[in-house]
Amino acid sequence: MSIFDKIKKQTEVFTYKAAGVAETARIRLDIVRLNGHIEEMKKQLGSVVYSHYIKGTDYEEDLIKICKKIEQIEKEKAELSAKLQAKDDGSKLCPKCNNPNPTDAKYCEKCGAEIIEKESEIEAKSEIETKDMKCPSCNKKVDKDSAFCSHCGSSLK
Q: For a tag on the chain, would you pick the N or C end, based on fewer CB atoms within 10 A?
């Protein structure tokens, strides 16, 4: 593996990690935005109750509409929080139901949907996980950049 191949591979891993950091930041910002929406909706609830109180009219229908909107926003926030938690603990999110699953899961524990990793995730993980390899001759751990095994002298390339 030439120095340029090594640089290219490291750049790919760095790009993958940077994309993960950017995604985490975006999720956190979305959660903050949704919290702001929820607070605005709660203020609106108070305004509706007070205005109907002053008018002496029934306000139940208006309250239900606002509460349903809040409930919808809370659900969206919970999904984002689950994504964030999965990123933090390294679990895989189900593409169908957003349930966090173990990192080695191929199917969702909750709904049974297949969990497919993106090719870039697989490549970056394999690059990170194969820092140490095993020699095909003696099965001892060797550095992935080694040309020969330091234990038995076998060629690794």
A: C
DSSP state for residue 9 in the 8-state scheme: H
DSSP result, 109-134 = TTT--B----HHHHHHHHHHHTTEEE
Reported as a single tens digit per residue, the pLDDT across 27-45 is 999 999 999 999 999 999 9
Domain ranges across the chain: 3-90, 118-157
Q: What are the pLDDT digits (tens) for 101-134?
A: 887 888 888 888 888 765 444 444 444 444 457 8
Residues 52, 59 contacting (CB under 8 angstroms): yes
CATH architecture of 3-90: Orthogonal Bundle (1.10)
- Tell me the DSSP string of 40-89: HHHHHHHHHHHHHHHHT---HHHHHHHHHHHHHHHHHHHHHHHHHHHHHH
Whole-prediction pTM: 0.55
Calculate ∠ Cα 132-120-128, nearest 5°. Answer: 15
